[in-house]
Amino acid sequence: MRTHSKETQSSLTPQTALQILKEGNERFVKNLKANRNLLQQVNETSTGQFPFATILSCIDSRTSSELIFDQGLGDIFSIRIAGNILNEDILGSMEFATKIVGTKVIVVLGHTKCGAIVGACNHVEMGNLTTLLNKIQPAIFNEKTTTENRDGSNADFVNNVTKLNVHLTIERIRRESPIIAELEQQGLIKIVGGLYDVETGVVTFNE
Ligand SMILES: [Zn+2]
User: What family does the database annotate (predicted)?
Assistant: First the structure.
């Protein structure tokens, strides 16, 4: 499988870009890796990159986007931060990745058993982590279905907060980046949420 070129990148629609990720995850789950020569891809990308997707995911060591979507060098912009939270630097990176470089889909990818989400649910405070975990609090506030045991020991609560965190992050991208919102309204990009299951390797997209 070859690296994306300017031609293949520009020929993709947002929907086909999403489909490439879905098919990549299916290969990953079936242990059928596409045949790639990474060193050859170093060569192919040496003069430029034409990635098709931008993925915001967690730093969790089990959730590397290139691996779980079976992608190679030059295929995706990978933004990783604990709890896949958003800030203005990450929004700036997304604006670069879409408006300037032309990726077709933004994926906000949460995952099961996320230590950052559990920490936020337990209201952990430690050094600079406190500020980061505070960014997950809106998802906790918006979780209205759990009335008891609203902490990190309640798997259902943690799962709901994880999904809400993805949902609210997507809403914030649209609200806080007029550049990205316009690209989406013009149909030039898609913004999609997803959840990676660390027990099965399966990514479930919201569409
Ligand atoms: Zn995580």
Answer: Belongs to the beta-class carbonic anhydrase family.
